[in-house]
Automatic annotation (TrEMBL):
The lineage of its organism: Bacteria, Pseudomonadati, Pseudomonadota, Betaproteobacteria, Neisseriales. Residues 2-147 form the EVE domain. SUPFAM superfamilies: PUA domain-like. It holds the Pfam family EVE. This is EVE domain-containing protein.
DNA sequence: GCCAACGTTGGC
DNA sequence: GCCAACGTTGGC
């Protein structure tokens, strides 16, 4: 059992969208490191911090869990999609996604508040220059964050 | 809209 | 395999 932080732009998929849909495919990842996390390291039931990025109030907005293991991201084959990848074919798909299931909405734990917590200083997502849309979260960090969210 | 940081591309 | 140029992310 591992833990992850996954960034989503709320204009695209917010925690409220996830709540109403129940489950979403995590489409659109176009970074190899993030893809490899999904493909190689995620397991069913892994804990997910649902993070709102590129928005007025960036931060953790809720909890989710991995509900389906990696499979090809359909948007890579769709010429109409902004995530279309002409170098990808159904035979040799380049990009993968997992499905993520809603667990619960939380208060917004802002990026600013996270930065002020000494115990969270080591979090991958807080490291200088980090741009990965999926990062791993240690068990201790997960526990600390859950305590902050209650 | 700016821009720092980083990933990817492609010429050599 | 190097590395400059370019593109993207994402906070501010």
């Amino acid at each position: 059992m591992r833990y992850w932080l996954m960034k989503s732009e709320p204009d695209d998929v917010s925690i409220d969208d996830l709540a109403s849909m129940g489950e979403v495919g995590w489409y659109g990842v176009r970074n190899y490191q993030a893809r490899n996390f999904m493909r190689d390291a995620m397991a069913l039931g892994d804990g997910v911090l649902f993070y709102h990025s590129s928005c007025p109030q960036p931060g953790v907005a809720g909890l989710a869990e991995v509900s389906r293991l990696a499979y090809p991201d359909p948007t890579q084959f769709d010429p109409e999609s902004r995530y279309f990848d002409p170098k990808s074919t159904p035979d040799q798909p380049r990009w993968q996604q997992v499905d993520v299931r809603f667990v619960r909405k939380t208060r917004l734990l802002s990026l600013d508040e996270m930065r002020r917590m000494p115990t969270l200083a080591g979090m991958q997502v807080l490291q200088r220059g980090n741009r990965l849309s999926i990062t791993s979260v240690s068990e201790a960090e997960w526990r600390d964050i859950l305590a902050l969210l209650d």
